[in-house]
Amino acid sequence: MVQNIYSGPLCKNHRKEKNPYLGYAYVVNLDPAVMTLSFGANIDIRDTVRYTDVKKEYGLDPNK
């Protein structure tokens, strides 16, 4: 169940601080094209999906 969705700098703080009701935050990166993250992710889509392969397979290009 998703309680809240945070991005960027907020992820750093919510992962470190324990919420008395929910426990620690679980951080998931769902952007396969991001080069670097400013926070650690518990699950990273980049471990599973290679965006370059998806671009080739579906003929995706930002200039088309």
UniProtKB/TrEMBL annotation:
A molecular function annotated in GO for this UniProt entry is:
GTPase activity
Q: InterPro entries per the record? A: Gpn, P-loop_NTPase
This protein's GO cellular component annotations are: cytoplasm; nucleus
Please report a single Pfam family linked to this protein. Answer: ATP_bind_1
Q: Does the keyword Nucleotide-binding apply?
A: yes
Q: Which UniProt keywords apply?
A: Cytoplasm, GTP-binding, Hydrolase, Nucleotide-binding
Query: What is the E.C. number?
Result: 3.6.5.-
- Asked whether the keyword Transmembrane is assigned, the reply is no
Q: What is its main location?
A: cytoplasm
Q: Which domain of life is it from?
A: Eukaryota
Localization per record: Cytoplasm; Nucleus
Q: How does it assemble?
A: Binds to RNA polymerase II.
Q: Which family does it belong to?
A: Belongs to the GPN-loop GTPase family.
What is this protein's function?
Small GTPase required for proper nuclear import of RNA polymerase II (RNAPII). May act at an RNAP assembly step prior to nuclear import.
Question: What is this protein called in UniProt?
Answer: GPN-loop GTPase
Species the sequence originates in: Panicum miliaceum
